[in-house]
Amino acid sequence: LKTAFVLSDASQGKDEKGRKAGKITKAVFKECRKIRKERALAEISLRFFEHRENMGLVEVRRSLLYYSRGKYISYVDSDDVLQQGALKAFFEAAEKYDGDIIQGRSRAGRFDSNGNFIPSAENLYSSITLGQITGYDIIKKWLSQGGIAGVLWAKIIKKSLLEKAFESIPHIECNMKEDFLIFFFLSFYAEKYIGIDDEVYLYRHSSGMSSRQKIDSVKKIRTVCSAASVFAVISQSDELKALQENEINCVRRFSALHLEDNIKQLNDTVIPELRSTAREILCEYWGQDCRNYLVVDGEWKEYTPWQFVAYSKEKGEEVLLEYKEVTDGLSEEEKR
Which among 217, 218, 226 is positioned nearest to 285, based on CA atoms? Predict the structure, then answer.
């Protein structure tokens, strides 16, 4: 590692000492240099950038790619931790296999007040296939078999592949499901995937907008609903049309599930004063035909863009998704 790149998304958040991103980064890097000097490690440089306004996570990842140098890129989200020895393990795998995407193991959990990592009962976003996968089997293994985690972290990815993927993604303001969007194009164009049996990443879950925190502003509502933009881009892409029917159906299912998740999150977390506004914004992002989703207690009605009908019983009970068109010709097991 020669240069570390840190990009602030123009967030106004501060730490317990009142410091914003720039000062936090400077303080951490100072401590990092001290530790490296004590261990006789080589000097590294730091480059800090900041967007003038919050343009969403897709554009943050695009900017980091633009500023970066080298053959491979590794993303680390601000609330997560790259394990000691991770880059060494990635480097050795890259030297040996020259994979387009190289993924290591990850653990999901939280940090306690003493800084200790407490693993969760469910290891979210940790799906990995050890060994090598090539060609179309990469996107198939991810979409229809669930054998690859569709996130950018816990991986190194060839810069040339990332550049190819971002060529297919227009400028988009999106703060939810952004990795699904980017990984869709990565997995489509990748020629070789490698899964290694090294734990490289600690993922801190339930700390961002995807967690069920109270939603008390229009901005937060829009952030949640921005997941719709992901599927709008994919649905209009030539890459989707080039997939086999089974993988296309998987994208449709994911879209339906994310819409369902949007609805449930808004129902559960939006403050009463903004519920009417939330309905309008949901329709703005996902289409006017989803208006009834937040109107009838416990019952979600037809949504035209992806042609599915969702039925729900009482809150907390299992939700059954019955798809039109998507399920035609599928066996009962495939429908489930």
Answer: 226
